[in-house]
DNA sequence: ACGCTTATTGATAATGATTGTCAAAACCAT
DNA sequence: ATGGTTTTGACAATCATTATCAATAAGCGT
């Protein structure tokens, strides 16, 4: 097991290898599962750094957890996220872009940014849930 | 079934008296400041009830707190929020509803919920910002 | 390579928001 | 008032996140 001094790199890689959004806790567990001795505090530190340097996106799940994801595209886009397994589909949302901009302007707002994320259960998790 | 809950009324009124979004904790403090002996647990319960019955909206602040707001319309709707002064405009978003549902279905997702909020600077704050 | 200085790490404690517990108080129909 | 049900609120428990801090590793000039 290689002991990489810069554990931040390990976190970045783990994020890259992750399909969708993942919580800091889950990422930590995941790293441990692959044999990394990384500490929870370091995972949080690394995620915070990555997020503030724009190398990762972060969002708040509906139940208050912070979720992170390495987003390949630097451009603006939105997400369709499985609230069970974290699977994430990136979606272009021109329609919504236009709508948001229009609504903002209509009410005299400028510098409009928007949070548009859709949470649901992916096909797989829906099946699992039904089986329960 | 109408429950006889005077606390819920107190919470509802306190919410009504509040301009923008407020945290459960802050609302509790605010109630205490006006002499109400209401307990923190009850505030959370009342807010939860109001939120699930559609009488209040909730969203997650960037730092993970849950914020609440009394909404005038009971139906599903979204918000246009001034990131400077907190002014909030409620917006109907049928277009977005349909889009979200469509996108979800298209990718096999079920039980779709969505977070759609637009942040910007209201006309007033834009003027102030320009003046600087 | 060696010693010295500084930055990074990670176990654990601390924090802060939220939720659970449960006995006491309030309410209601008799 | 009385018994049974519901609501309340002090406090404990929980969960994610952040701060602490001693141990360790990386840098660096020699």
From TrEMBL, chains A, B:
Keyword tags: Cytoplasm, DNA-binding, Iron, Metal-binding, Repressor, Transcription, Transcription regulation, Zinc
Annotated binding of Fe cation, by residue: 76, 97, 114
A Gene Ontology cellular-component term: cytosol
Cofactor(s) for this UniProt protein: Mn(2+); Fe(2+); Zn(2+)
Primary localization class, coarse: cytoplasm
GO biological process: negative regulation of DNA-templated transcription; regulation of secondary metabolite biosynthetic process
Keyword tRNA-binding (UniProt): no
MF terms in GO: DNA-binding transcription factor activity; transcription cis-regulatory region binding; zinc ion binding
Residues given in the record as Zn(2+) binding sites: 82, 85, 122, 125
Assigned protein family: Belongs to the Fur family.
SUBUNIT field: Homodimer.
Protein name per the record: Fur family ferric uptake transcriptional regulator
Taxonomic source organism: Agromyces terreus
């Amino acid at each position: 097991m290689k002991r990489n001094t810069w554990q931040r790199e390990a976190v970045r890689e783990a994020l890259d290898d992750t399909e969708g959004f993942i919580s800091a806790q889950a990422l930590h567990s995941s790293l441990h599962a692959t044999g990394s001795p990384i500490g929870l505090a370091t995972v949080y530190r690394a995620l915070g750094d990555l997020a503030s340097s724009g190398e990762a996106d972060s969002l708040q799940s509906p139940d208050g957890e912070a979720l992170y994801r390495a987003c390949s595209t630097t451009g603006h886009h939105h997400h369709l996220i499985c609230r069970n397994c974290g699977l994430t589909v990136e979606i272009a949302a021109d329609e919504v872009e236009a709508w948001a901009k229009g609504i903002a302007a209509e009410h005299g707002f400028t510098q409009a940014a928007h949070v548009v994320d859709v949470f649901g259960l992916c096909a797989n998790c829906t099946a699992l849930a039904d089986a329960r």
